[in-house]
Amino acid sequence: MVEQLSQEINVSRPIATLLLQRGITDFNSAKKFFRPSLENLHNPFLMKGMDLAVSRIKQAVSQNEKILFYGDYDVDGTTAVATMISFFGKIYEHVDFYIPDRYKEGYGVSFQGIDFAEEKGFSLIVTLDCGIKSAEKVEYAQQKGIDFIICDHHLPGEIIPPAVAVLDPKQPGCQYPYKELSGCGVGFKLAQAFALENNIPETYVYELIDLVAVSIACDIVPVTGENRVLAYYGLQKINKNPRRSIKALFETANLKKEITVSDLVFILGPRINAAGRIDHARKAVELLISENDSDAEQIAKLINEDNLTRKDLDAEITRQALQLIAENEQWQNARSLVLYQED
Q: What is the C-alpha separation between 47 and 170, in angstroms, rounded?
């Protein structure tokens, strides 16, 4: 098979071996890999629940309901929320977002977040990069008259939440052709579907592709299939026409060269994550959706300071851990160690 692929696409045997390891077995799949095209993105309505999700949002818009986009506090979650706010905020007024506090609420949908939605009059919550294991929270929201649409990419548990719609390529019965989308990628497909259904220009969707590329890089999902297309065009946008927020963050790092995926992972990602670790991830979303140069620069500087604080804390934790090991002779010969200290 290696020899056959090598001859078919005219590459060396080692390259053919690497391609086969990535599921590329013939000329057509190799062409899609080496020459990504937006035309190769799948129809979003192939995803289970997509028609229900689009219908419920359309109903909310027609009835002037308030929609709350609820995301995780990491890079994937904050870029997903920024993607949805940027897209739906252009076509509908009554949208806002909620990011849980990492330390007070923890990961995923929280009762506190649902109480916030009730207090502020939101009747529809759209989760991003979380929610697939939040059946109890969805039931709690239903008692308050709040509907849920779940956009997630994690493996589901035994119980699928009783939401109006669940979008997750990994859920049972979903025939979507590509299973490795990031959480932001699932949100992007929802925006794509809503645009198709409502005759919204596709440029409204594709101008968000840079945020999807950031999520793909920083969430370490496979850069294959749709992810490769999204990452390729997203990286092009970052280099040719970067949004204010991404440009401002790279300026805080004094990075002025062509941006690579590694730069997204090791320079941009830690800064976005630092907002949630040191302060609050809401700040990261506010930066990502900023359309004002001055605001973007100011928030980027604050987030960069968070990252410097995070680095100092990491260094101190490492110093303390090494000191503990140095004080215990038995630990020094251990093949692996897990150290814990309350403070």
A: 10
Closest CA to 121 of 189, 67, 55, 181: 67
Report the SS3 class of residue 165. Answer: strand
Q: Both tokens of residue 318?
A: 């490492």
The Cα 74–Cα 271 span in angstroms is: 10
Task: Please report, for the chain, the start and end positions of each structural domain, with discontinuous segments joined by +.
Answer: 2-35, 44-239, 242-326
Please tell me the least confidently modeled range out of 31-35, 105-109, 148-152. Answer: 31-35
User: Which one, of 63, 62, 73, 64, lies nearest residue 97 by Cα?
Assistant: 73
Count of beta carbons in the 10 Å neighbourhood of residue 23? 11
Cα–Cα dist 211/214, whole Å: 5
Supply 271's token pair.
């800064």
Beta carbons of 209 and 251 less than 8 angstroms apart: no
115-168 tens-digit pLDDT: 999 999 999 999 999 999 999 999 999 999 999 999 999 999 999 999 999 999
Close Cβ partners of 38 (under 8 Å, ≥ 6 residues apart): 206, 229, 233
User: 178-205 b/e with 16+ CB inside 10 Å = b?
Assistant: bebbbbbbbbbbbbbbbbebeebeeebb
Per-residue pLDDT band for 28 (boundaries 50, 70, 90) equals confident
Round to whole Å and give the CA distance between 67 and 147.
10
CATH architecture of 44-239: Alpha-Beta Complex (3.90)
At residue 3 the predicted structure's pLDDT band, cuts being 50, 70 and 90, is confident
Q: Structure tokens of 253?
A: 């790092």
Comparing C-alpha atoms, which of 247, 180, 235, 239 is closest to residue 211? 235
Spatial separation of the C-alpha atoms in residues 61 and 17, rounded to whole Å: 51
- Whether the pTM exceeds 0.85: the reply is yes
Q: Are 168 and 156 in contact (CB under 8 A)?
A: yes
The pairing of strands 66-71 and 95-98 is parallel
